[in-house]
Amino acid sequence: LGNLRILLPMITTLDELRASKALIERVVLELTAEGHQVLAPEVGVMIEVPSAVYIAPELAREADFLSVGSNDLTQYLLAVDRTNARVADMFDGFHPAILRALQAISQAGTQAEIPVALCGEMAGDVSLTRLLLGLGLRSFSMHPAQILAVKQEVLRADTGKLQGLVQQALADDEPDLQALIKH
User: Fold this and answer.
1) Can you give the pTM of this predicted structure?
2) How far is residue 58's CA from residue 83's CA, in Å, rounded to a whole number?
3) What are the φ and ψ backbone dihedral angles of 12, each rounded to 5 degrees?
4) What pLDDT was estimated at residue 176?
5) Most buried in the list 25, 29, 82, 105, measured by CB within 10 Å?
6) Which of the four pLDDT bands, split at 50, 70 and 90, describes residue 68?
7) Is residue 20 within 8 Å of residue 8, measured between CB atoms?
8) Which CB contacts under 8 angstroms, 24+ apart, belong to 40-45?
9) Sheet arrangement for strand 116-119
């Protein structure tokens, strides 16, 4: 149908992306040689490990789209097992390291002129919607039950104003992000 997209999980190096793309290209060529009309699919990278955050600009230049796996990325960046009751309260989407990582990924996508989507619990957390919009994120994948509340928050938001406020807050040593979302 021409709408196939492949999202590569757990990419940690540029070589992994390149090798995966080469395999996909080989399969397209094989299918074409067999007489099938095949369009090369778009290939994206799931950013969910810390190493991918640091090479997001390079990944963005070679991918067709990026997607952030917020659950895994938060768990790995904060070294917190969200399923362990003893430390689960440390799993914090408001943590400045998480938000700065999202900011870097969003900027990498913008600079490469490719879309960046956010998946996972953060995407459907209405208390984070304003921050995520302020970070430049515009595409969210969430449980259907969360769509209406997030959509209402998006429609009320002044994204230009939010971007300035988030940039200013993240530049602080100890940003008051809870206050920002009520602004």
Assistant:
1) 0.89
2) 32
3) -120, -15
4) 65
5) 105
6) very high
7) yes
8) 41/4, 41/5, 41/6, 42/4, 42/5, 42/6, 43/5, 43/6, 43/8, 43/17, 44/5, 44/6, 44/7, 44/8, 45/7, 45/8, 45/11, 45/17
9) 5-8, 42-47, 65-69, 116-119, 139-141
Query: Is-contact 12 49, C-beta < 8 A?
Result: yes
Beta bridge partners of 43: 6
* % of the chain surpassing 90 pLDDT: 68
Tens of pLDDT, residue by residue over 124-183, are 999 889 889 999 999 999 999 999 999 999 999 988 888 888 887 777 776 666 666 665
Run of H or E residues at 133:
helix 129-134
